[in-house]
């Protein structure tokens, strides 16, 4: 793979995306050893698009018969969503581990930040379902900048300004980037009937959460019954997985780290449009221009 220097660290390009060596190694390990099951559910996203929220929601929806959303011993009340739905390339397959996933009951839930093309053939060609969470590029960028400056690789990012990140997003060279290529590819795949890819948007989840969670359940083949709708199951799941609830749980405030990150770091502010408090008009204009160039004509727009 080709190589680029990113703030003194090596980034490698593989199948159209950039990775630190440890992540690339995990991906190669996954591609070699993972065996998909038709019932698998894969949650895909670019970091900071609402992955934690999606993990919690899918876990709660899929397991609602086993764990009612108002159960006092619900796993989401005592464990972090990242432990309940683990990342393929940042957790399961790191350091040449070969996790035994055969024992896991169906449906198995996994998460990934990999682009569509990098999901293993056996997974891509199987009828297993992929849910993609998309968030507008400006909120993703601002969320990522806070996360990088305060949490992950913070020494590396100590002199890295928001403007630097805007420029890197425009160049497309950064870990797991380019964001726009990833979003566009999942968007296109979601339009092809033969591929079970559900394209969800963070902004729509904020705006009409009930509608979106029902859509999610329909896609996953576990639609809410009339009785469940009447008895408020959808609302209870949303409450359980809400920012306010999850971010205030002891397990997410002080719990042990997941993939080297303290769980509280996945909850910052939530919501739509925080970019307006951070990006200058010039930064926003540059991003709009790039998005227009990349996504124009695809039918995909950021709100
Ligand atoms: P902000 O930094 O804009 O607040 P990811 O889970 O992909 O790392 O994304 C993290 C972003 O999702 C953060 O955005 C975080 O606050 C927000 N988030 C986390 N849990 C959420 C929830 N339950 N509902 C809505 N947003 C949530």
UniProtKB/TrEMBL annotation:
Per the UniProt entry, the Enzyme Commission number(s) are: 2.8.2.-
UniProt GO molecular function: sulfotransferase activity
Give the classification, highest ranks: Eukaryota, Viridiplantae, Streptophyta, Embryophyta, Tracheophyta
Identify the residues that the record assigns to the Sulfotransferase domain, covering every copy: 38-299
Organism per entry: Brassica campestris
User: Which InterPro entries does this chain map to?
Assistant: P-loop_NTPase, Sulfotransferase_dom
Q: Record keywords: Transferase included?
A: yes
Q: What PANTHER family does its record include?
A: SULFOTRANSFERASE SULT
UniProt keyword terms in alphabetical order: Transferase
Q: Which domain of life is it from?
A: Eukaryota
Q: What is the protein name for this chain?
A: Sulfotransferase
| Family to which the UniProt record says this protein belongs | Belongs to the sulfotransferase 1 family.
Which is one Pfam family of this protein?
A: Sulfotransfer_1
């Amino acid at each position: 793979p080709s190589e680029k220097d990113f703030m003194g660290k090596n980034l490698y390009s593989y199948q159209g995306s950039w990775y630190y060596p440890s992540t690339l190694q995990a991906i190669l390990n996954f591609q070699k050893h993972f065996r998909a099951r038709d019932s698998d559910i894969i949650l895909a996203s670019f970091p900071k698009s609402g992955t934690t929220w999606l993990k919690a929601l899918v876990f709660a929806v899929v397991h609602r018969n086993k764990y009612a959303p108002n159960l006092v011993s619900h796993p989401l009340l005592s464990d972090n969503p990242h432990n309940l739905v683990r990342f393929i390339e940042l957790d399961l397959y790191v350091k040449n581990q070969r996790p035994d996933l055969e024992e896991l009951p169906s449906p198995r839930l996994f998460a990934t930040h990999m682009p569509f093309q990098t999901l293993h053939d056996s997974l891509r060609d199987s009828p297993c379902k992929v849910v993609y969470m998309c968030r507008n590029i400006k909120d993703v960028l601002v969320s990522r900048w806070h996360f990088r400056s305060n949490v992950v690789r913070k020494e590396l990012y100590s002199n890295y300004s928001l403007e630097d990140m805007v420029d890197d997003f425009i160049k497309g060279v950064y870990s797991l980037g380019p964001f726009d290529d990833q979003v566009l590819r999942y968007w296109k795949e979601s339009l092809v009937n033969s591929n079970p890819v559900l394209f969800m948007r963070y902004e729509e989840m904020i705006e009409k959460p009930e509608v979106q969670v029902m859509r999610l359940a329909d896609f996953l083949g576990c639609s809410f019954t009339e009785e469940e709708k009447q008895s408020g199951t959808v609302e209870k799941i949303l409450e359980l997985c809400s920012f306010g609830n999850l971010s205030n749980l002891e397990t997410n405030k002080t719990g042990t780290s997941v993939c080297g990150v303290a769980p509280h770091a996945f909850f910052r502010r939530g919501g739509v449009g925080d970019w307006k408090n951070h990006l200058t008009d010039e930064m926003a204009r540059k991003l709009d221009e790039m998005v227009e160039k990349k996504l124009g004509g695809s039918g995909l727009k950021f709100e």
